[in-house]
């Protein structure tokens, strides 16, 4: 059956959306509301008829959701709200509860709320999006698509932490891994385009939030993020991996409470914390050229952490056939990709710098032992497919 499905990605100050005609997977409209909660928000939308780009009022996620629906109606993308049959929401953390997409009911909402403790930057705003759409589109089926679901195949030996096993049984403390829809999309793309090179994939989702996945025969066997999206790589404002003894040390010497430590690790660390300048890789590359030493240090650390994980996952996979770069930095930053891959000449990686500079699909040379690709991610289509699957049943 034909259905219009809305894919939603709620951020702390943004709301991204794509409206699909399913099962044809035709994008009818796409856009976002940025700077939600600020004096002036900004709305952009692309449809067959053209582009919309304007400053708007959106003091809350409720207002942003109303704005999206109003604009879809005003530009005659839909004639009435009841045309939207389903809304798929990207949810950061499904914990031990969910290993696949689920229809949202009160219990699901409660669990998403409960898991906010593990994804404080994401689950609460994901929930705001769900509640706003429920109010506005009561007829539409709401589906939760979890960042953790594609990582449910990580084996226990890779997923558990070396703390008393009781805590795993009691609280589900283990590695869940994140960015599942992105890594899933990348896996499917490699399987489709390079089937003979798709058995051992390392997928590098590099954006403000960043994670790397080891994927064997279409299933995740490891992911750099952990119990929460704070673990793994150094990110825009997140610390990534660190010695756990640092936390009680800071508590003792700086007098920080738990909330201050959470804020320090999630919002004041990473590229921003080291550079003291910016959490944006573009700003740091510009500053590095101008001789800003801490910007250069932040970039060197970011690159080193990525190289370390790629090296570990190449060993874990017992070799690698394809390395993929995706997300904001992965798709657009040829300098970062080039620096990362220099480390893997010993594995037979040969980068074609002309293709790399042009952000082409294949950036490795023909004689490279490993296929190195740049694939724009599409989390929204994964969300739409998962939502439609529920709807069509």
Automatic annotation (TrEMBL):
The job of this chain, per UniProt, is described as:
Catalyzes the formation of acetyl phosphate from acetate and ATP. Can also catalyze the reverse reaction.
What catalytic reaction does the record list? acetate + ATP = acetyl phosphate + ADP
Query: What is the enzyme's main class?
Result: transferase
Kindly identify the residues recorded as the active site: 147
Domain of life according to the entry: Bacteria
> Where is this gene product found?
Cytoplasm
Its BP terms in the Gene Ontology are: acetate metabolic process; acetyl-CoA biosynthetic process
Q: Does the keyword Cytoplasm apply?
A: yes
Which prosthetic group or cofactor does it need?
Mg(2+); Mn(2+)
Gene Ontology molecular function, alphabetical? acetate kinase activity; ATP binding; magnesium ion binding
Q: Which pathway is recorded for this entry? A: Metabolic intermediate biosynthesis; acetyl-CoA biosynthesis; acetyl-CoA from acetate: step 1/2
Residues that coordinate or bind substrate: 90
Q: What does the entry's cofactor note say about binding and number?
A: Mg(2+). Can also accept Mn(2+).
Tell me what organism the protein belongs to. Latilactobacillus curvatus
Q: Which residues cross the membrane?
A: none
Q: Where along this sequence does the record place binding of Mg(2+)?
A: 9, 379
Query: Which protein family is named in the record?
Result: Belongs to the acetokinase family.
Q: Where is ATP bound in this sequence?
A: 16, 205-209, 280-282, 328-332
Q: What is this enzyme's EC?
A: 2.7.2.1
Provide the Gene Ontology terms for cellular component: cytoplasm
InterPro entries, sorted = Ac/propionate_kinase (IPR004372), Aliphatic_acid_kin_short-chain (IPR000890), Aliphatic_acid_kinase_CS (IPR023865), ATPase_NBD (IPR043129)
Q: What is this protein called?
A: Acetate kinase
Q: Which UniProt keywords apply?
A: ATP-binding, Cytoplasm, Kinase, Magnesium, Metal-binding, Nucleotide-binding, Transferase
Please report a single Pfam family linked to this protein: Acetate_kinase
Which HAMAP family does the record associate with it?
A: Acetate_kinase
Note the subunit structure.
Answer: Homodimer.
């Amino acid at each position: 059956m034909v259905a219009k499905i809305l894919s939603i990605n709620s951020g702390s100050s943004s709301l991204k959306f794509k409206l699909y005609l399913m099962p044809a997977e035709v994008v009818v409209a796409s856009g976002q509301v940025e700077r939600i909660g600020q004096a002036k928000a900004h709305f952009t939308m692309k449809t067959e008829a053209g582009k919309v780009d304007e400053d708007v009022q959106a003091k809350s996620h409720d207002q942003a959701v109303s704005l999206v629906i109003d604009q879809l109606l005003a530009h005659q993308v839909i004639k009435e709200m009841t045309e939207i049959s389903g809304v798929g929401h990207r949810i950061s953390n499904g914990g031990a509860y969910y290993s696949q997409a689920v229809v949202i009911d009160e219990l699901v909402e409660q669990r998403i709320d409960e898991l906010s403790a593990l994804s404080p930057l994401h689950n609460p705003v994901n929930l705001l999006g769900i509640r706003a759409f429920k109010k506005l589109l009561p007829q539409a089926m709401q589906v939760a698509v979890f960042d953790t679901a594609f990582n449910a195949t990580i084996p226990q030996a890779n997923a558990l932490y070396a703390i008393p096993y009781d805590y795993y049984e009691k609280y589900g403390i283990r590695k869940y891994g994140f960015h599942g829809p992105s890594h899933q999309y990348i896996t499917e793309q490699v399987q489709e385009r390079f089937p003979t090179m798709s058995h051992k994939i390392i997928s590098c989702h590099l954006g403000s939030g960043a994670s790397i996945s080891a994927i064997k025969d279409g299933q995740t066997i490891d992911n750099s993020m952990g119990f929460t999206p704070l673990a793994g790589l150094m990110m825009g404002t997140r610390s990534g991996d660190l010695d756990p003894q640092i936390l009680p040390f800071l508590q003792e010497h700086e007098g920080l409470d738990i909330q201050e430590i959470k804020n320090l690790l999630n919002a004041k660390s990473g590229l921003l914390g080291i550079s003291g300048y910016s959490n944006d890789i573009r700003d740091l590359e510009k500053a590095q050229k101008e001789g800003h030493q801490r910007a250069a240090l932040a970039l060197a650390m970011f690159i080193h952490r990525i190289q370390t994980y790629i090296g570990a996952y190449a060993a874990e996979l017992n070799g690698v056939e394809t390395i993929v770069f995706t997300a904001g930095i992965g798709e657009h930053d040829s300098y970062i990709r080039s620096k990362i891959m220099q480390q893997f000449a010993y594995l037979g990686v040969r980068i074609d710098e002309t293709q790399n500079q042009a952000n082409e699909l294949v950036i490795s040379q023909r004689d490279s032992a490993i296929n190195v690709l740049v694939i724009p991610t599409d989390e929204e289509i994964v969300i739409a497919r998962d939502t439609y699957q529920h709807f069509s049943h």
